[in-house]
Amino acid sequence: MINSLPTGSCFIEVWVVDSAGISIYPSNGSTSFTIANNIERTTGNTIARVAFSDFVEAMNKAASTIAKGDPGEGLDIKGQVTSVSALPTTANEGDGYLVNEELYVYTSGAWKDCGPIQGPQGIQGKTGTGISSTTIQYQISNSATTSPTGTWSNSIVATTITNPYLWIKATLNYTDGTTKDFYLVSQKGDKGDKGDTPDLSNYTTVTDLNNGLSTKVTDNKNGTIEVNGSSITPADDSKVVHDNHNGTISINGDSFTPATLDSLAGVNAQPIDTDVNTLAKPGLYYVSKSAPNNPIKSDMMLETRVQYDWNQFKGVQIIYAIGASLGIAIRSIYPNGSFTTVGVATPWEILSDDSKVAHLSGANNFDTVPTYGNNNKPFAINDTGETTARPTGQAAGYQYFDTSLNKPIWYTGKNWVDAAGTTV
Predict the structure, then answer these.
(1) DSSP string, 263-298
(2) Which residues touch 326 (CB under 8 Å, ≥6 apart)?
(3) φ/ψ of residue 302, rounded to 5
């Protein structure tokens, strides 16, 4: 650098940056010196040549005679402003501000421009090399230390007794076309101890699952469902009785309290005198013989059953007579929506007392001979035959048509007589 200095007056100032901060020599300003002529331009025999080491030694010797100034204040960059005029008027020694790209440092009571803090852009470096892709391949081998040389597979290969080691080759493919392989090796572990027997009580067995699948419900997407191969139309929810879980039920949006026995059996049960035509709510009632519209005039159990069908309540009432006059009666009813009355009803059909009905034991034979009158006289129907076939042991008044005589006759208890009373 010295050989490039021109002749004339020059100024020098040395900045030393170390762990103590920035030191400027000399501290009171730059030092001037004069160059009469460049050493390399010296002619004659005054200085034939100067070795660089000799020059450095001479400069160090000269520098040692210069007294070292006091340590300067450290550099403390406070911020950035847009112009020199925006710098603070006062600051601490060593305070610094950036003015655009220039660093200004406050030293000796004034702001000093220390030049740009960023040098010119350097030469662009070479394009780096990256990884373009990675390939993982597998191969089994009988060695755990020497990588196999056979064919690598893109899928995991199961180890064998002969080749118990699984090798993994990871190939890194770089953007410059080069590749690098890395190898890993693993071995199938020893068989572990037998585990505890699991508790399967909360799990479904295959048999139960198959049974469940055989009875599964399938939505046919046409308003029907299929259960175990059969197509079923689900019930219309609007026509279903719902339990409200509060002692009531809902039918078609209306809430009702289900009917119960008005008098509990065994607790001084007493029949009620309620009008039969008002007992329209579903339930079982103990009704007295004197209740209005009691068709059998006997104490009875009245059972009312109702079904909601096609926007209408339909039902049936059944009477079970209690006491000496046993019997059963039935009728259809169409109660109103509030179940306060049976509404429209068919006449009661009173079923006969089975004990008072003649039963046939064969095609033409009764189990017992029908009787009539106060003395239970036998009643014969179509008893015919020849004279020699007349029945015996019959009660007086028994009628028989004698085909040999071609006329009806009657048994008196002793003899057979005709209509005129003549023994025949």
Answers:
(1) S-TTS----B---GGG--SSEEEEE-TTSTT-TT-S
(2) 353
(3) -110, 125
d(CA 329, CA 319): 5
Q: Cβ-count burial of 85 within 10 angstroms (0-12 exposed, 13-18 middle, 19+ buried)?
A: exposed
Nearest by Cα to 183 from 166, 173, 170? 170
Rg of the Cα atoms in the chain: 64
- pLDDT tens, per residue, the chain with 424 residues: 556 666 777 777 777 777 666 777 666 666 766 666 655 554 444 444 556 566 667 777 776 776 666 665 678 888 888 898 888 988 888 888 888 888 898 888 898 988 887 767 778 877 788 888 999 999 999 999 999 999 999 999 999 989 999 999 999 999 888 999 999 999 877 778 888 888 877 777 777 766 666 667 778 888 788 877 778 887 777 667 777 887 677 776 777 666 554 444 444 467 888 999 999 888 888 888 899 999 888 888 889 888 877 678 888 999 888 875 667 889 999 988 788 888 889 999 887 666 666 666 655 666 666 666 666 666 655 688 999 999 887 878 888 899 999 999 988 989 999 999 999 9
**Amino acid occupying residue 99:** V
Between CA 405 and CA 423 the distance in angstroms is 12
